[in-house]
């Protein structure tokens, strides 16, 4: 089987490609990535050396470029597409939503149309719990919870999810959509909460926490998510939607405190800053459908997984420094004012 993985140079795509190549010797992967500020080809350099030209190859390009997508599907005998490619940072979407629509909505539609035209047998679309909006103190998101996105990012992901649904309902394209809670683990870009706070803590800089720090997220180790995506690819019902979670709800403040503890820094570094506009209060996932139909269960406990992640960042300082390009720094400095 030959997979086209889009966005494979990003955080989850990188982990997914590594996972698939490790556990499915019969599968080969074509990684199609635009290499935005969030894409780092160095994440997979060792894989290229190991499997180059044989089980792994890289194609540079934009999922919203129909000609380029067609060209890639014509040159590689693709059996399934797994679409991770996206603009993913909520704060950036508040700053400018345009690239979110172009990549997340238009890009997904271009891929779907190309898959339909080429008769690609399987299309797995990676989405997020954020499409459901926000929860109060009780309850969980289920797959039939109405979509109610509150940020330009989540609205663009919901738009993509609905286009995937439409291609299944209208044309019978064999699609599966996965919706997952907050991921953490190796190779996460340092604009996201955990690596950002790790970076600030180790530098002895103030750690900015939105609002009162009481916003709750469910944390899933990226390896658990990758196992879930592979299960969805192999066993998911055509047209199916599956939630994945880590059964690890924590407030942002809890997460920040844990990182300070793991890095040996004082809680005096915590700075409460003006809340993010439209900030969802709580996300939590009911993943019983994925457990029942796919056999999914998270394996990592949050505290152990976080400690291992901090160890990974500690051992990979050079990686962290290398992804912090000029463009990245410019946005972060402007947005967080440090
Ligand atoms: P990321 O920002 O780390 O990586 C995104 C990748 O997509 C980058 O390599 C980037 O270069 C590539 N890309 C962006 N625009 C592209 C385009 N037009 N064409 C081709 N490639 C393009 O993202 P991530 O955190 O790895 O997230 C991957 C997917 O998982 C996204 O669809 C995201 O919505 C979803 N998701 C993420 C989380 C999370 O906690 N990170 C949770 C749930 C769902």
Summarize the structure in words:
With 338 residues, the chain is α/β, with parallel strands linked by helices. The protein has a single domain, classed as NAD(P)-binding Rossmann-like Domain (Rossmann fold, 3-Layer(aba) Sandwich). 45% of the residues lie in helices and 17% in strands. It is built from 13 helices and twelve strands. The strands form three sheets. The chain has a seven-stranded parallel β-sheet, with helices on both faces. It has a three-stranded mixed β-sheet with strand order 7-9-11. A two-stranded parallel ribbon has the order 8-12. Strand 5, helix 6 and strand 6 form a beta-alpha-beta unit. The protein is globular. It starts with a strand and ends with a helix. The mean pLDDT is 94. Bound molecules: nicotinamide-adenine-dinucleotide.
User: Would you count the extended β strands for me?
Assistant: 12
Q: Structural class of the helices, strands and pairings?
A: alpha/beta
Helix run count = 13
Q: What value does the Rg take, in angstroms?
A: 19 Å
Distance between the termini: 47 Å
Total count of domains: 1
Inertia-based shape: globular
Oligomer: single chain
Largest sheet: 7 strands, parallel
The fraction of residues assigned to DSSP E strands is: 15-25%
Assign the CATH topology. Rossmann fold
Q: Which consecutive residue ranges, at least 5 long each, have pLDDT under 50?
A: none
Mean pLDDT: 94
**Small molecules bound:** nicotinamide-adenine-dinucleotide
Pattern of helices and strands: EHEHEHEHHEHEEHEEHEEHEHHHH
């Amino acid at each position: 089987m030959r997979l086209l993985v889009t966005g494979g140079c990003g955080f989850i795509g990188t982990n997914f490609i590594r996972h698939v190549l490790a556990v499915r010797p019969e599968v080969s992967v074509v990684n199609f990535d635009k290499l935005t500020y969030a894409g780092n080809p160095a994440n997979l350099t060792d894989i290229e050396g190991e499997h180059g030209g044989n089980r792994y190859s890289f194609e540079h390009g934009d999922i919203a470029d129909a000609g380029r997508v067609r060209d890639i599907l014509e040159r590689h005998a693709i059996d399934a597409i797994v679409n991770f490619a996206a603009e993913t940072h909520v704060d950036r979407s508040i700053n400018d939503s345009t690239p979110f629509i172009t990549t997340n909505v238009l890009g997904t539609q271009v891929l779907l149309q190309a898959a339909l035209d080429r008769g690609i047998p399987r299309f797995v679309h990676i989405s997020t719990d954020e499409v459901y909006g926000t929860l109060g103190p009780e309850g969980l998101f289920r797959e039939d919870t109405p979509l109610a996105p509150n940020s330009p990012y989540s609205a663009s992901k919901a738009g993509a999810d609905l286009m995937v649904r439409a291609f299944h309902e209208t044309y019978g394209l064999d699609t599966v959509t996965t919706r997952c809670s907050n991921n953490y683990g190796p190779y996460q870009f340092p604009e996201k909460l955990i690596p950002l706070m790790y970076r600030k803590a180790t530098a002895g800089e103030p750690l900015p926490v939105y609002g009162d720090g009481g916003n709750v997220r469910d944390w899933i180790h990226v390896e658990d998510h990758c196992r879930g995506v592979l299960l969805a690819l192999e066993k998911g019902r055509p047209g199916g939607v599956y939630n994945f979670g880590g059964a690890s709800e924590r407030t942002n403040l809890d997460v920040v405190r844990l990182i300070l503890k793991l890095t040996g820094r004082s809680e005096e570094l915590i700075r409460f800053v003006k809340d993010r506009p439209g900030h969802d209060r709580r996300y939590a996932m009911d993943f019983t459908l994925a457990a029942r139909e796919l056999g999914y269960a998270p394996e990592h406990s949050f505290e152990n997984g976080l400690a291992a992640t901090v160890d990974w960042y500690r051992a990979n300082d050079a990686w962290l420094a290398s992804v912090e390009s000029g463009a990245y720094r410019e946005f972060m400095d402007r947005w967080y004012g440090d």
